[in-house]
Structure formats: C-alpha cells, structure tokens
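Example 537.
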Amino acid sequence: MPPNPWYRTATFYELLPRAFRDSNGDGVGDLAGIIERLEYLEWLGVDCIWLPPFFDSPLRDGGYDVSDYLSVHPDLGTVEDMAQLLDAGHRRGLRVIADLPINHTSDAHPWFREARMPGSPMRNWYVWDETGSRYPEARIIFLDYEASNWTWDPVAEANYWHRFYHHQPDLNYDNPEVGEAVLDVMRFWLDLGFDGFRLDAVPYLYERDGTNCENLPETHAYLKRVRRTIDEEYGGDRVLLAEANQWPIDAAAYFGDGDECHMNFHFPVMPRLYMALAREHVRDIVKILRDTPPIPETCQWGIFLRNHDELTLEMVTDEDREFMWDVYAPEPASRLNLGIRRRLTPLVGNDRRALELLHGLLFSLPGSPILYYGDEIGMGDDISLPDRDGVRTPMQWDGSLHAGFTGSGVDAAAVYPPIVAAEAYRPEQANVAAQRADPGSLLNWVRSMLAVRREHPEMGRGTFEILEHDNDAVLAFVRGMGSRATLVAVNVSEHPQAVHLPSLAGRVEAGDADLIVDPTGLIVQIGPLEFRWLRLS
Ligand code: ISL
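Predicted structure in complex with 6-O-alpha-D-glucopyranosyl-D-fructose:
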C-alpha cells in the first residue's frame, strides 16, 4: 500500500503529559488532563501530538528511563486512559505519536535486573565489557553528568555500555531477541491506536570496534526492518520520526530510499536560525540548506525551534558554539552539556518581532513544523531548576493560582516543576485564556499562521529554491507545487532592507507599496525583523 503522506503537511505539537494539565488534583499532569485540553489543540490547528515517554519509569531522565514499555506511569493514568486519549484525539482529527526510547532502558527495567545476574541467560540483552575501555572513539553525550560510556556493575562483575546517563544501559541489538522484543513493544502501542513513533536516540543502536558507534549500517538495517514490519502489519498510515541529531548527510540516511523512517528532525538548521538573528545575516542558514541532500518524495524533515531538551549546539562548529553561548547564554546556569537550557521566548528577549520571524521560518522552510507546548503563548523558563526541568514547567492556562494547570486548592509544593515565577512570564502575563480572548496576542497570531499554512500545501510538500541576490540580511526562497508558488522573504536584521530578485520579473503583481516591479525583476522592501509571504503567478 502506498504510504499516506499526511505527515508532510502536518503540524506537530510536543506536549509533556506531566506538565500539560492535571485532572485529578495531585499536582501532576495526566492523560485525562490532556483529553480535557484536546479542544484547545484542535482550536489551535495542529495535526499531530507528540507524547514524550509516558511509561513506568524511575523518572531519573524525565521518563526516557523506561522500566516497563507496556505500561503507563501510574501518575499519568492507565493503558485504558491512553486508549481513550487516542480515541478522543482521533475523533477531533488529531493524530498521536509515542516517543519510544529504544536505545536504552532504565537500570530498573526487569530485563536489566535479570541480565546483570551472574550466569543469566539474558546477559547479552545489554552490552558488556570486562575492561570498560572498548569503543574509545564514541563521544560522551551528557558531558555535564558522565565521564565514561561504561559503568561497572558489581553484581554482573562487568562494565555495561550507556550512551546517556549511567542508569540507562544500552540494549544490545546484536542479540536478535532485543530487536524482536522492541518490535513487540511497537505492536502493542500501534494496536492501541498510536499513529506512529518518535524513535528516540536512534543513531546509537549498534556498536562496532574502530567506529564512533553512530549511524552504523547495522542500525539502518534494523530501522528498515521496523519500517517493513509496520507497513506490512499496519498499512501505510503510521509514521516513524527518527531522532538523529546528526549533520545533514548522516541525518538524511535515516530516510533510506524511502524505506526507513518517514521523518527525521533537521537538527543542524535549528541553531542557525538563532545565529542568523544574532549575526544579522543568513549565510549559515543558506549553507546548511545547500548542504542538505534531496530526500525521497515520501519523506519529510521535522523542523523545530525548541523542544524538551536543551537547545543543542552539537551540530555547529566550536567557534559557532562559543558565539551562541556568548549571545544567548551569558549566565553559566543557562548552559548544559553542549547546549542552552532556555525556552524560545526568553532566548529572544521576549521580542515579538523575533518570535514571529522565527515562526515564519518554521512554517515555510522545508519540513513539517514541530511546536513545543507553551511556546505559542510565549512561556518562560526557570534556570534555577536542575537539568532540563526549567523548560518543562506546567502549561499556563489562565491567570489563576497554579495557572489553571491544577486546582487552586493544590499545595504548591506538589507541583513540580513549579509554575514559572519570573515577573515577565508569570501566568498573569502569559496564559492561554487571556491570549485566546485577545485578537492581537501571540497565540492568535500563531493560530492564524497555521491556518494560512494549511491553505498552502506547497509549504509542506512543495519544491524549495533559494533565490540568489546580493543582500545577505535577507533569506529569499520559493516554495512551489504544481501551478502554485509562494515567495518567502525574511529580513533577519534590525534595519529595513531591500532585495532585488531578477528571476521574479513579471511574477508578482504590484499593488503593495513595498513591492517594486520593474523590467529587471522584483524589488521587495522589508522592515526590520519582518518576513513576507507573496503569491507568485
Ligand atoms: O538534544 C540533545 C542534547 O543536547 C541530543 O543530543 C539528545 O540528548 C539526544 O539526541 C537524545 O535525547 C533523547 O534521549 C535522552 C533524553 O535525555 C532526551 O530527553 C531525549 O530527547 C536520553 O534518554
């Protein structure tokens, strides 16, 4: 069956179940709370919800440390509640994908508890080494927390391999039983009604001597097997979104020949959007897009401004990383690993023009946009909290105590992470109810842009052509599909700019004071930090 490419024109919305809405007054968000707020997501105009891990877990890595793949964490509800959420979402035309950490489990997972036992037949479900010195070329990802990818286990009397926290042993995909067990996990949730998965941390599934243990051919072969299985058993409607934080050429490999993942995040373009604002030129964006290979017709990039992790600077040069830290993270507390643990709105100093410009890019660059809950209302963060908790605070629904996240009778101490307290971002300043009622709000602006984008399928599925011109404060490109084409022109500088686009002679009607049409081409004038979408004939 040919795949249904719904994901190529969809907008995704990442929401943290613990932080979205608490329905039962225990201070923790839950699945029933999400069901209560589906009306909001439908109103906003998103198409697919991305649910970060909701499984049973000791919660030492926000749930990415899974201790039972076939369960729902008791704080959040039950498998039955999840079935209801999927059903209620589908009735509103909203799809839902589950975030599945398949590279590693928690050390509390029964598989690991069994595997570490002396003489265990399950020992080779994980990756062990006597010396803890194997695979020295593999980098450490959580640099601020871990000194090695190996940790000694006194029970097993061996070191186990982990690419992330030491309490997250990596599964051993060289053991075919592991690949089978993970497929069974996928079947369980697809049977319940999920529309697909975000496959967490996929570059690291296999290890091989003499390599950096990323993007190995064996990893791609396993993912192709997953795709084949899901296509055969569930038809062409379910989606696989890879999380492969890699340079464009390696990232594009996760699409295979259209026979691997349907989607992958475009990590490298993200920091370059912020770099463009800070440098007031678009050369870094243009370069990374030119370095991005064409991808199969049925595939799609996932593009984003922020997510639940730190704003990662893994895919920039050392020099660019220092620049980004200097500009966007002058306080040491806002830096984490190779990134910046801040939300979108504080990053750009709550500048509405920058927020609109970044969303304008998010909604028009090649790929499907992925929003992070709260960014649509300009939510703030709290860098006094540990790790990434400060960008995972409760959604602010209204201006009441606890922001309408939970009942006002709930003890504030039960709400963790706490509601943002910074003056400019308190619930009174940023909340859904007030912004829904205000036609000029950021929320209504984002909603109207999503509606405009829906009318322009070329933004999702169309061709992408960067236009040559001599003003590098302006990014100009054309998205085209069949007889329709839209010019996007973005001024990342604080000064008015004009661009002369010879190739567009005769393709835009004048009638707008900012457009000068003459026989040599089109001149577009754009204000500071503004962008334009213009229909071309
Ligand atoms: O964005 C990154 C960090 O700066 C990435 O390197 C990211 O951490 C990595 O690709 C995997 O992240 C995922 O698995 C982690 C978990 O902590 C993250 O929240 C999740 O997104 C380990 O379980």
